[in-house]
Each structure stands twice: as structure tokens, then as C-alpha cells.
From TrEMBL:
This is 5'-nucleotidase. GO terms for molecular function: 5'-nucleotidase activity; magnesium ion binding; nucleotide binding. One of its GO terms (cellular component) is cytoplasm. The lineage of its organism: Eukaryota, Viridiplantae, Streptophyta, Embryophyta, Tracheophyta. Transmembrane segments: none annotated. It catalyses: a ribonucleoside 5'-phosphate + H2O = a ribonucleoside + phosphate. It comes from Zizania palustris. It holds the Pfam family UMPH-1. Its EC number is 3.1.3.5. The keyword NADP does not apply.
Length: 318
């Protein structure tokens, strides 16, 4: 759930983070360009793993300039196949927290869509924080079997959602939480969204966070919507007074982000309380057999499960 206490701080990296800043549109241009062109020096600095993919040399190191490529030759083949198929066959599936948003914010760990939320009720904020302190070590423990961990993650999410309902979360609290939050999109995200929208390439934002908060972040930080973006996340149901009364559909947590949740995809709503309609082009998305997958958690690899893709490039943000 990646909910962090307000006092949580870490020392910023001294080396550039993987694929940052502003790699996104350059990446898509490389994938969609049919003619091979020299890679500009500036791009080689920011995207060393793609420089390797464009090279016919097999001597490229799998570790270079802060990036890691497991199979440079395999990546090159995928890039070539995606280029040949063109934009009509491509879709982008992206996690939200720490993938589309910055990991670092003003020198400290940025907040997630769960972590930024303040209900306006200190008792319930404290109860959710206590859940984080109990379950987060379980989430990041490598020694717990995944089936056991998945059950505990679902338990954590259900308890948290219950506290949000019981504590009387409102539209107003969500808006204020986003205004006060330490959250921002990575450099290049707007450029990426515009690039994809111009080419009718769908983007599926797949998050174990809270859809309504993600949408409010879009509204406040980007000040516009994109017709090609759908969100798959935990969506709230509010009453006429703007108070949370339930959650819609199945619970999505960090270890079940897969095809079983794709029927919850919905456009970014312009306002709170807009109808929770589902996507009307899911069948068309399933026909797009080339996938660019972006994430920061091992569970994000499951976001493309159920899609019969031909080529998938998975990029992990460390």
C-alpha cells in the first residue's frame, strides 16, 4: 500500500534513477520509428538500455549507467517487432505510485495515493498508520510465500477500506489531501500522454491505490484529461452528501494486479461522483498484442496477465 508516515525521509540517490528524468516519449519514439536513426547523445545518456537494444553488438554490459538489461539481444528483437507492427498494435500498461509519480519529492520519499490521504479524523488516520506499520514489513519481506502474502495483503486492504468508510471520508478531505500532498508526476509524463493520445495508443493505469484519489491527482497536477487513459484501481462509492459508503467491485492489492481486475477499467472522471462506467473498448485493447509495461513492484509484472501479447517490454523503476 506504500503508505508512508509524514516524517519518513530517506537520503536522495546520488546517481540518476532508472529511466529518469523524462524518458517516456523518447522510448515510444524509438519503439514506433520504422526507420533506424542514430541515437542522439543526450538520449544515450538517459536511456542506455535502449541504446543497447538498438545496437547489433552483443558485448553490451547488462549493467550500465544505472540501468540493467537482462537480455539486450532479446530486447532488440522486441523493439524491432514492435516497430514493424506499428502503433495500432501497441498499448501501455503502467503502475501509478512511484512509476508515473516521482519516488523522490523535494529530497524525501514522495507520497502514494494511499499515503497522502488524511481523513480529517486523527483517530482513523492513526489506525490506518498502525495497519501500515504492521503489514508493510510483510509486504516487503522476501521470505513469505506469495500465496500467504497475498492473503495478508488482501486483509490489509480490506481493513484500510473499512476504516475509510467508518471514519466518514468525504470528497472535501480527498481534495484537501491532494492539495497538501508531496506527490508529483515524473518529468516527461505529460509529454508521454500527449504522444500516445495523438496516436490513439491506449494507456491502462493499473494501481492498487485509490482510483478517486488518482483522478484528483490528475485533475490538480495535470489540469486536463486524456481520452486514451483508463484507470484500474479501487473505486469509491459516495452518497449524495459526498461521504464514502462503499467500494465498488473486487479489492485490488499489490499482488493481484492481473486480468481478473481489468473489467474495472474506467475513464478518468472529470468530477467526483461521475458515473463509474467501465471501458467500452476492452475487447479492442485485448487485440493490441504489443505491450510496454511500466512498474516499480514485483507484483506489477502481473498487470499484463490474461493478455495474449506477442511482445512485452517490462521496465522496472528501482
Amino acid at each position: 500500500m506504500s503508505q508512508r508516515p509524514n516524517h519518513f525521509e530517506m537520503r536522495p540517490m546520488t546517481s540518476p534513477p532508472l529511466l529518469s528524468p523524462s524518458p517516456y516519449s523518447s522510448l515510444l519514439r524509438l519503439l514506433l520509428s520504422r526507420r533506424r536513426r542514430p541515437t542522439p547523445p543526450a538520449l544515450r545518456c538517459r536511456l542506455p538500455f535502449l541504446t543497447a537494444a538498438m545496437s547489433s553488438s552483443s558485448s553490451y554490459s547488462t549493467r550500465n549507467h544505472g540501468s540493467v538489461v537482462a537480455d539486450a539481444d532479446g530486447l532488440a528483437r522486441k523493439v524491432a517487432a514492435i516497430r514493424a507492427a506499428g502503433p495500432a498494435k501497441l498499448q501501455v500498461i503502467a503502475d501509478f505510485d512511484a512509476t508515473l509519480t516521482r519516488y523522490w519529492y523535494d529530497g524525501s520519499r514522495g507520497q502514494s495515493s494511499h499515503g497522502l490521504l488524511r481523513q480529517g479524523n486523527e483517530e482513523y488516520d492513526a489506525k490506518r498508520e498502525a495497519l501500515f506499520e504492521h503489514y508493510h514489513p510483510i509486504e516487503i519481506c522476501p521470505d513469505i510465500p506469495l500465496p500467504e502474502k497475498a492473503k495478508l495483503m488482501e486483509e490489509w486492504w480490506e481493513k484500510t477500506h473499512g476504516l475509510l468508510i467508518e471514519g466518514g471520508l468525504t470528497y472535501t478531505a480527498i481534495r484537501k489531501s491532494v492539495v497538501d500532498a508531496s506527490i508529483a508526476f515524473r518529468d516527461g509524463v505529460v509529454e508521454l500522454f500527449e504522444f500516445l493520445e495523438e496516436r490513439d495508443i491506449p494507456v491502462l493505469v493499473f494501481s492498487a491505490g485509490l482510483a478517486d484519489i488518482i483522478e484528483e491527482v490528475f485533475r490538480q497536477k495535470l489540469h486536463r484529461s486524456f481520452k486514451n487513459i483508463k484507470i484500474v484501481s479501487n473505486r469509491m462509492v459516495f452518497n449524495e452528501e459526498g461521504r464514502l459508503v462503499a467500494f465498488k467491485g473486487k479489492t485490488i492489492h499489490v499482488l493481484n494486479k492481473n486480468e481478473h481486475a481489468l473489467d474495472m477499467a474506467a475513464p478518468v472522471h472529470d468530477n467526483f461522483g461521475d458515473p463509474n462506467g467501465s471501458t467500452d473498448d476492452y475487447s479492442l485493447v485485448k487485440k493490441r498484442t504489443n505491450v510496454l509495461l511500466l512498474g516499480d513492484h514485483i507484483g506489477d509484472l502481473g498487470m499484463s496477465d490474461g493478455l495474449k501479447y506477442e511482445n512485452r517490454i517490462a521496465v522496472g523503476f528501482l
